[in-house]
Amino acid sequence: MLDVVVIGGGIAGLWVLDRLAAAGFSAILLERAALGAGQTIAAQGIIHGGAKYEVEGKGTAASESIAAMPDRWRASLRGERAPDLTAAKVLTERHLMLARGFGLKAELASRLLQARRSRLDRAEWPEACALIAQLRRVIGLEEPVVDVPSVLQAFAAQQRERVHRAEVVALHQDGDSVRLTLRGPHGRPGELAARFAVLAAGAANHLLLPAARQQLRPLHMVLARGAPGPLFAHLLVGPARPALTITSHALEQGFVWYLGGDLAERGVALDAEALIKQARTEIAAAFGAAATTGMRFATKRIDRAEGAMPGKRRPDGAVLQQEGRVLALWPTKLALAPAAAEQALAWLRGKASPGERGPLPLADWPRPEVAHALWEDVEQWN
Ligand SMILES: Cc1cc2nc3c(=O)[nH]c(=O)nc-3n(C[C@H](O)[C@H](O)[C@H](O)COP(=O)(O)OP(=O)(O)OC[C@H]3O[C@@H](n4cnc5c(N)ncnc54)[C@H](O)[C@@H]3O)c2cc1C
User: Fold this and answer.
1) pLDDT for 7-36, tens place per residue?
2) CA–CA gap between residue 221 and residue 300 (Å, rounded)
């Protein structure tokens, strides 16, 4: 019997699949739509090392568990550790923290300026920074930003034989196995049994495992094409939290700014039109009204799914919950997928050794495509 079925082809499922296969477990992954189609393709791709938490004053536990992630990802991006992500694109090695219109508190500034975080001289500022009124400080954070579709492509190329397009519509556990009911493309029915299941279905985890305890954090993101120049930055307009988190992505002509941060949290209460108006106002306030004249906007609503925490606080790291032979996991962040995968592997190793090797099931089922970047699928820019 198959050792493990991984359900969900976002960053968590793909990273887990790679680690399980490398450890000798027979494993396949089932994805109902396209690889990355949930939160992963909507991620900004920032491999956080904890600086944002420091700005938000969210304690050190979060910072500590995430601090190792930029180096962990770099090891894979350089091909020094599995999974081999050398085919993935790094959009920038350094994300910036831009402090505008106020002095960073001395204590925070000194924390941010610790090892591997440097204050940039004016000559090193990206061009778009020249537009920002009252820009006081530019701090370089050693947090790379990855091109998410290319990360997904890198996994897809390596794991092709183990990844299938199928929706898991029901999951039952009996004494020594997990039994799944499947629905493939065009309603094709199927069944599968495995010794264990890893549930990495994001916001859908609790649908397959009602005992799973999760929390959702809604966001309303903004896409802006015709932006004034490439920029990867948290823009602080007050001392507390990033008003705008900006990443830049190439289009056939020009590029798009993908905007998150406080704007996307406040945007949940707004419809698309009102959020676009708000985004224009905030961009104009920071970069000057002229910067917005050629910009066209779209928005995207998406929920972050996390393992439930008391008081709905944000988890410090990946969250794993076990129910018999099923392990549900939420990486909390794209950046934390490697940590989630190591924890899942440790859980499995604690339960069983790899079984007999035989042919993998569902060999004739189709493979999912990789999800398109959000800006490729926008129907109308406003
Ligand atoms: C707007 C936004 C921006 C973000 N930016 C960042 C960032 O810059 N840096 C960072 O570190 N983190 C970021 N995050 C967080 C990060 O995106 C998530 O933590 C991470 O992508 C979660 O990955 P996942 O694999 O657990 O879930 P998902 O990516 O949601 O994947 C779940 C997959 O399961 C599939 N699925 C669901 N049900 C079934 C079923 N029944 N059968 C088969 N397949 C199923 C879905 O189609 C989907 O592909 C961001 C999140 C959001 C929403």
Assistant:
1) 999 999 999 999 999 999 999 999 999 999
2) 5
